[in-house]
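Hi Q.,

Before the meeting this afternoon, I wanted you to have the molybdenum atom prediction in hand. No need to reply - just skim if you have a minute. The sequence and ligand are here:
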Amino acid sequence: MGMDAFADTTAATAVTRTHCPYCALQCGMELRADPADGSGLRAAGWEAFPVNKGALCQKGATATEVLNPAARLGSPLLRRHRDAELEPVTWDEALDFAAARISATAAAHGRDAVGIFGGGGLTHEKAYSLGKFARVVLQTPHIDYNGRFCMSAAAAASQRAFGVDRGLPFPLADVAHTDVILLVGSNLADTMPPALRYFTAQRENGGRLIVVDPRRTRTAEQADLHLQPVPGTDAALAAGMLHVLIAEHLIDEEFIAARTDGFEEVRAEALRWWPERVEAVCGVPAGDVRAAARMFAGAGTGTGGDGGTKARGDSGTGTRAGTGMILTARGTEQQADGADAVNAWINLALAAGKAGRPYCGYGAITGQGNGQGGREHGQKADQLPGYRKITDPAAREHVAGVWGVPADSLPGPGRPAVELLASCGTDIRALLVAGSNPVVSAPDAAFVASRLAALDFLAVCDVVLSETAALADVVFPVTQWAEEAGTMTNLEGRVLLRRQAVAPPEGVRSDLDVLGGLAERLGSPGFLTEPAVIFAELARASAGGVADYSGLSYERLDASSEGEGLHWPCPTPDHPGTPRMFLDAFGTPDGRARFVAVGHEPAVEEPTAEFPYRLTTGRVLAQYQSGAQTRRVRSLNAAEPGSFVQLHPDLAAAVGVAEGDAVRVTSRRGSAVAPARINDLIRSDTVFMPFHWAGAGRANSVTRRTTDPVSGMPAFKTAAVRVEVAR
Ligand SMILES: Nc1nc2c(c(=O)[nH]1)N[C@H]1C(S)=C(S)[C@@H](COP(=O)(O)OP(=O)(O)OC[C@H]3O[C@@H](n4cnc5c(=O)[nH]c(N)nc54)[C@H](O)[C@@H]3O)O[C@H]1N2
Ligand SMILES: Nc1nc2c(c(=O)[nH]1)N[C@H]1C(S)=C(S)[C@@H](COP(=O)(O)OP(=O)(O)OC[C@H]3O[C@@H](n4cnc5c(=O)[nH]c(N)nc54)[C@H](O)[C@@H]3O)O[C@H]1N2
Ligand code: SF4
Ligand SMILES: [Mo]
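Predicted structure with the ligand bound:
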């Protein structure tokens, strides 16, 4: 089968089944020609696709608007010298200019002076090619990506505990059959609306939901029990719940002995976290800590213990007695102790024996469209394809063999994202950005913008003129989701084929063509640019790795796309894929899960007299990430036109702010100003801002560059701030 099978650009009545350009749910969608729409296409849910079953959120439903040529870049742009404006140029001129500047930088300052910043929304083919381009063409160690801001803490924690990081080690649909869910720092009602149905089904089946979030979100509204901790104190809360399990003999001694190591040290630490002490640190009433622990263990809630399937809901399937899951997202992970906090939650799941068996386990809810796949195939500073370590001699040998270069020519590990951006303009002199808009989304964004401005050369590949592209010397206008074939791995480790539905507009080329064009000019002709061919090479490069894709191909993915799909690892062409991991053994060398002894570190930046409150940040339903795409969609912009500051009536009264007033939120880094939204859905010592906007309302003007030492994750979700009326 040739490439044409995946590029359906023909009849006006044709329906192309593909996947949403945005989040990690990767909802299946059907695109139909619609001459009335500026993009020529209309999106609808794809009923047979098992994850979203026909549902789309409002972002997915309006995603075709960003295909409209009127919304996007149509030609390469070039800034000829520092004080010049960006002007349209030909592709050859833009590629020649960029290649010349990259060569000049490497000649003057060494190969290490050139860096790449990628994105977790890019297809595998793009992410893999960026990694190969860095190591083979540029021969620089310096490549990292925005996934560092997103999933890195949970990834590091899963590797420590289970030896493997696959966001959900089971299909999302399994949550409907687990008895108790502990959902920590996720507002999935807004961030993955079609996923909510599985949580609703779980409660209809007789299950219980506990939500941990400093805000009473639409997700928390669904919970049987909602705990509202002080931001940044999750590790202490998890230790307190473990304390209760130990004190009340609710731990699973048999499971701990049979399947895990390291409990003794963790037990000793947990004994120091009695519920009243937890209340003092986390602001969660001791009684709620006890109730949550008992509910999670399946004790004292009327659930558990009947030894079989409970069919209490209409669906007749019920939840399985004694099962439970802990799911985390960015609230608990984007902290200065993010990996430790996640391990504290994993410790709780292991102690309760709720892992490594059906309808049990820990999962991280991955965020970006290819957040999972983007961290498997070499776009990360310390990594080679197949989720291999770049420091592992056998991994280097294998991947170098696939690439046809000597293993000792591959550079070593580079710097994690925050450090990479901070070294721009000093030892990094030239940077290529693809698939991220750090001027809006990076922590301490004003500092980051100043570092980018200090570069000798910045090139950006994007669909639109993002705030970051606007700073560039060269902007490459690229094709996006429905205009090209590519593969993605969703939050369940399910590998998906995104099919092309429409021809790209005039003047636009793929990121893959940009890399191919630069490689040729930098003396490495023949760099692959065909997605299906690149995927075949990626599959070979991943063979034998943790994330083994070697049994996958475009043909297999195409054929499997309406069924369960194919979950990695999938090591041979007849392997059925692995929807559920860890049922027999965990991914560590000896197959046993590890308890990780973690303490509770204070949030590093504790409130002071000058900065007495905490800022936490996150998302709203109608905007996506830095907003580069969704701020260009009319209906989404009408729904959420700008930033805001959410604050409790008591805090508003204390600082003299009324509804709608312009509020200034100031930290040691800087200020953001946005209108007040006053309600009692948030703790009275904490304010919340979404991060989707540039300009005065930019939340990341206030956030800090402090990172988690284990994973490099920035502490986006706690900063000490002052709050006042902006005059
Ligand atoms: N609409 C929309 N959907 C998206 C995205 C988007 O930008 N917009 N982005 C996608 C991506 S990349 C991601 S990563 C996901 C993120 O998905 P989520 O993690 O669900 O989103 P957030 O809003 O960042 O954070 C979730 C919650 O964490 C809470 N929180 C803050 N501090 C703490 C804390 O200390 N502890 C705990 N337990 N909770 C805390 C916040 O109040 C917030 O409600 O969403 C994906 N889906
Ligand atoms: N304060 C605060 N800040 C945060 C967070 C938070 O919770 N709070 N969350 C963090 C998280 S989890 C994340 S994931 C980051 C995300 O933040 P960013 O990394 O800025 O992510 P996006 O806005 O999705 O940027 C993607 C860019 O790529 C472009 N694009 C789309 N498709 C393609 C393509 O195929 N090729 C190329 N070259 N470009 C394309 C889009 O137009 C857009 O400009 O933000 C982080 N920042
Ligand atoms: S939930 Fe995520 S994947 Fe599904 S339609 Fe919305 S943005 Fe797209
Ligand atoms: Mo993310």
